[in-house]
Amino acid sequence: GGGGGEEEENDEDGPALPARADIVGMEYVIELAGVCIAASSGELLLVAPDPDAALNGGAGGIGIGADCVPECVGVVASGLRAMCWNPDGELLMLATGAGTIICMTKDFFVLSEAPVGGGGIGGGDAGGIAANLSWRGDGQFVASLVGELGHGNGDGGGGEGAGGGPTLQVWGREDLELHSTGETTSLPLVSGVSSGASYSSSASLLASPPLAWQPRGALIAAAVVPAPDNGSGGGEVVLFERNGLRRGSFKLPAAGASRTATQLAWSL
What global pTM score does this model have? Predict the structure, then answer.
């Protein structure tokens, strides 16, 4: 099917993952009674009880146990960088190594695919893609924060040459209609297009830029780091509205803390 990759049948006796595979996403999905796992190498796995076993009086359907065998339900050739299930458990969103996002049903059928960052991310050898995804609480919109690793620290003069910093975008639920792109200014915000500053928690494909949509849907929080020549303190959390406009920000403490944020979360 579509989705920037192809599904493959695994050898029944073979491993579900390569010998070395970094996990970029893992969630328990109530509707599937199992755990869905995304690997950076592109495999999408489901670990769940065998529903037929429950019908035959077995332990299937009552929880995850040692008898659950991981099933590879799909492979994306360019690799996976982030995974996020819709709050209602009906849709799955993936960010790929090719600079696209994919929307799938809970049965792992592709509904739509769209390029992120205006289609300028993921072409050629860009040093890798880092990404994060976050759904609004009602599941009607999803935010993506995607950028290229190894870029964004160039001439610092902005424009296309300094690109590669993560770009915030908001998408519709199933059709992936682009609703907004995060506002940028001369400050080193999420995309960093004007300053050349980039986010990074490590020089790794797993360095997902922190992103969290407020459960009630009003604000989207994204973390940035100070410019390389800025010795004034720690990073900053920038707040956006759904239309991409910047709502405000606050700085992280410089003393006794890292200069970078690794994760953001809102209280319920």
Answer: 0.75
